[in-house]
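If your schedule permits, I should be very grateful for your opinion on a structural question. I have a record of one protein: its chain in single-letter code and its fold written as discrete structure tokens. Would you kindly read the sequence against the tokens and tell me how you understand this chain to fold? Thank you for your consideration; the sequence and its tokens are set out here.


***
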Amino acid sequence: MIKNIQALRAVAALLVVVDHWAALYGGWFQRLGAIGAVGVDIFFVISGFVMIHATAGRTVSPSRFAVSRIIRIVPLYWTFTIALFLGAVIAPNVIRSTTTDLAPLLKSLFFVPYEPYGPAWARRTQVSPLLFTGWTLNYEMFFYAIFALSLFLRNVFWQRAAVLAVLGVLVVIGLVGRPTGFLMKFYTASLLLEFAYGMVLGMFAEQWLRLIRNRGVAWALVAVGLSLLLAMMAIFPVSIRGYVLGPFALLTVVGALALERQGVAVRSRLWLLLGAASYAIYLVHLLSTVIVVKALAHVPVPGPAGVTVRGVTTVVAACGIGVAIHLLYERPLGRWLQERLPPRIGRAAGKIAPPVIPAMPRE
């Protein structure tokens, strides 16, 4: 486990929580909180990086890789999606923004993008599955599918080159061809570049990190990368975020890796736990946020103090519920599924994980 990457996952998840919490208030507060959406850009760069390290120096079959990703992504997402759908069927007056049609449910479960619906704040993205945050998983699973297919190639260089080429060509089609069809617009979005940035980092991490021999430089990379990432999110439209935000997300991840290589790693059990539970936090936070906001709607604390109380309570609730789901459901279920994999796929499929970045030797 790379501790700083785990902590960065926690930061990314919390940024998204703040973004969606602020969206419920509207106005200037929504515009300010919307910069938290950069958590998605950080997640995508990390995904590209981790996939390279997860398969580096070992032979991983396409089936083994695919199963590892399915076990990691699908069970928890399907659980929340089906629960939301059933809630809309049973209590339509309570869950009003969720459709009970079967077609959107099936598309959501199998990561098929479709045009957004529902409240205006939920239509900021290109796609809107039943569980709103699942739109990013449509990109993740698309990337994993391309990566899995590349593993049919025997040469590692050509595997990496094939994935980068596919991502690059798709983005060029979107930039030059400007497709009008919904699916083509989705699958040629600039966001795909962020997976490529992470892959390139994974391929050249050793060489790049050797150039960063000063902790001050590493800290500066994190600070500058994250600051500019937040600032650019407030300026540039979502459609070009892969070109503008992706490089700064990459800079942030590089700085975090450089710090760990030099012996500066997050050791807080809380932050590492939040990083491990970041996926659960990401999926559950919309529900927990709505519950907290409604519960505190009549709390007699006006002005900035009231907003602060609601904000802190929202973040704490999202983290607490997410961690509980991770420890009591997500992790045990993942282990149970791994133990029941067919021998030909291998029981280690779900254990694909990146190696630790070695510490910089002291001089």
In short: Residues 1 and 355 are 6 Å apart (CA to CA).
